[in-house]
Design goal:
It contains four helices and two strands; from the N terminus they run ααββαα. By secondary structure, the chain is mainly alpha-helical. Helix 1 packs across helix 2 and helix 1 packs parallel to helix 4. It starts with a helix and ends in a 16-residue tail after the last helix.
Length: 77
Amino acid sequence: MRQGIVRRVATLALQIEPDRTRVLQWILHTPLAALGGQTTFELACNGQGERVVALLRNVLAQPGATTPQLPHAHAAP
């Protein structure tokens, strides 16, 4: 696993959710439906962390008045 990708994911995730504990839990334990149901950690370990980076950038780029949320198992990307 590359530490750099996990750090990049965490940095982006913290722009969405400022609570570090929640971000860590999300990285380790939340399956991402948009990415095949794997967790961020699993994807990073399998060399697919860039997919999570792209997903988070997409969330941050969404226009609108609603506050962005971290993607979850049942949430739309």
